[in-house]
Design brief:
Helix content is 32%, strand content 23%. It has twelve helices and 17 strands. It has helices at 3-19, 35-49, 67-75, 85-93, 110-118, 129-142, 180-189, 209-228, 257-267, 282-285, 318-322, 396-401, and strands spanning 30-33, 55-60, 79-82, 101-103, 123-126, 146-153, 175-176, 193-199, 235-237, 275-280, 289-300, 305-309, 328-330, 338-344, 353-361, 368-371, 392-395. Helix 3 (67-75) links the parallel strand 2 and strand 3. Helix 4 packs parallel to helix 5, helix 5 (110-118) crosses helix 6 (129-142) and helix 8 (209-228) packs parallel to helix 9. The relative contact order is 0.16.
Length: 404
């Protein structure tokens, strides 16, 4: 049996066990994490990058900062990619070494910069001239030298949702190509800055590998320009953004990391002494997480049948924010007949809809649904809107200990 077939079999067993649970005495909604799948995903990544000794992966905390998951990812030897001072502190508290932490973001406050300096992080991914100047000033006041990569906006189109495209010229992220040479020379001249290299990130949920080929070609052009000026970056950071299969998570529980890393090996022209860094988030944790929710009511109107559940956009905002699609499974119905439902939440917003016109086994009050592939940007984006409580989370080990 191949590795991926084994993982799919494991996933099927896990869901069979969940379908046999009595959820009547456990509070929903909650997040369920399959940590065996997370570990298997990390093993695949480690196996792939072992072929490329100059490749390094930093986990993007913004995808999910659940402490249980962070410990597993830390123990696999990954670094941390942070986009706030709070994430830097959470990464350090979770045991990620400071010298494996990278910190990006267009609006780093003085307090956040000082937090990162205190922990001697691997580098700041700097997004503007004013930010570079402030980091230099604060580092001087602290008697430190800040390592930086300059985030360059490569003006590369990523074929994904408009809200998660980051590498086009009109986006707020990064330093414009026309300003790059000036800012690199400034970074090299500032006394409390150590210029390390270049950082790029073109978007998220990218499944078209040609987008990464295009990014590689642009980076090659940029490096050629810099080399002509006698500038040789030691670090290239290509960000993350690798997508997952939201439609068939049981068939593709692990993203195609092999093809992803091969793109950069084959198309990016690195010098032997250069290190290549990745910032993967969604592709690491999305498939291991599901939002478990209970049906409150089934409501029939003249044109629609609604399955009204106790989870809403406060627990999983992606469908409302990005029109994202997640596979929805009824864990407790034993009916072989299918009916059409809109699965909606209780929030006082018309956008509080998980999916429309989907086929489910006959669904009744008290049935338990799983909204799949919710491990990324689910729990981390949860809110207390409508004065709701933040969702709890459980792993398979926790579920075994719950007294039903």
């Amino acid at each position: 049996m191949t590795f991926h077939r084994s993982i799919r079999k494991h996933h099927k067993v896990v869901w069979q066990l969940l379908m046999n649970r009595d959820f009547r005495h456990i509070d929903t909604p909650f997040y369920y994490y399959d940590t065996a799948l997370l570990r298997a995903t990390l093993d695949v990544i480690c196996s792939e990058i072992a072929q490329y000794p100059n490749f390094y992966v930093h986990y993007a905390l913004k995808a999910n900062a659940n402490p249980k998951l962070l410990r597993i990812i830390r123990d696999a030897g990954f670094g941390a990619d942070c986009v706030s001072g709070g994430e830097v502190q959470v990464a350090i508290d979770a045991g990620f070494p400071g010298d494996k932490v990278v910190y990006a973001g267009v609006g780093k406050s003085d307090r956040e910069i000082l937090t990162a300096l205190k922990h001697n992080i691997f580098c700041f991914n700097v997004e503007s001239i004013p930010e570079l100047q402030i980091i230099n000033q604060l580092a001087a006041e602290e008697g430190e030298v800040a390592r930086v990569c300059l985030r360059i906006n490569p003006d590369v189109e990523a074929h994904t949702h408009a809200h998660i495209v980051t590498g086009k010229a009109e986006n707020k992220f990064g330093i414009a190509l026309t300003d790059m040479l000036q800012v690199v020379k400034m970074a090299e001249d500032l006394p409390n800055i150590s210029f390390q290299g270049l950082h790029f990130h073109i978007g998220s949920q990218i499944t078209n590998m040609h987008d990464y080929v295009t990014l590689c070609q642009r980076i090659n052009e940029i490096q050629f320009q810099l080399n002509k000026q006698g500038i040789y970056p030691s670090v290239i950071n290509v960000g993350g953004g690798l997508g997952v299969d939201y439609h068939s998570p049981e068939q593709h529980p692990i993203a195609n990391f092999k093809a992803y890393f091969q793109v950069f090996e084959q198309h990016l022209h690195l010098r032997p002494e250069q290190s290549l860094h990745f910032e993967l988030g969604r592709s690491i944790v999305a498939q291991c997480g599901s939002l478990i929710t209970k049906v409150l009511y089934v409501k029939q109107t003249a044109t629609k049948q609604f399955a009204i559940v106790d989870a809403g956009m406060t627990e999983l905002i992606r469908p409302a924010l990005y029109q994202a699609k997640h596979k929805i499974v009824n864990l407790t119905s034993h009916s072989e007949s299918l009916e059409t439902y809109d699965v909606v939440g209780p929030i006082c917003e018309s956008s509080d809809v998980f999916d429309k016109d989907i086929q489910l086994p006959i669904t009744r009050r008290g049935d338990v649904l799983a909204i799949r592939s919710a491990g990324a940007y689910g729990e981390s984006m949860a809110s207390t809107y409508n004065c709701r409580s933040l969702p709890k989370s459980y792993t398979e080990e926790d579920i075994d200990l719950i007294k039903f």
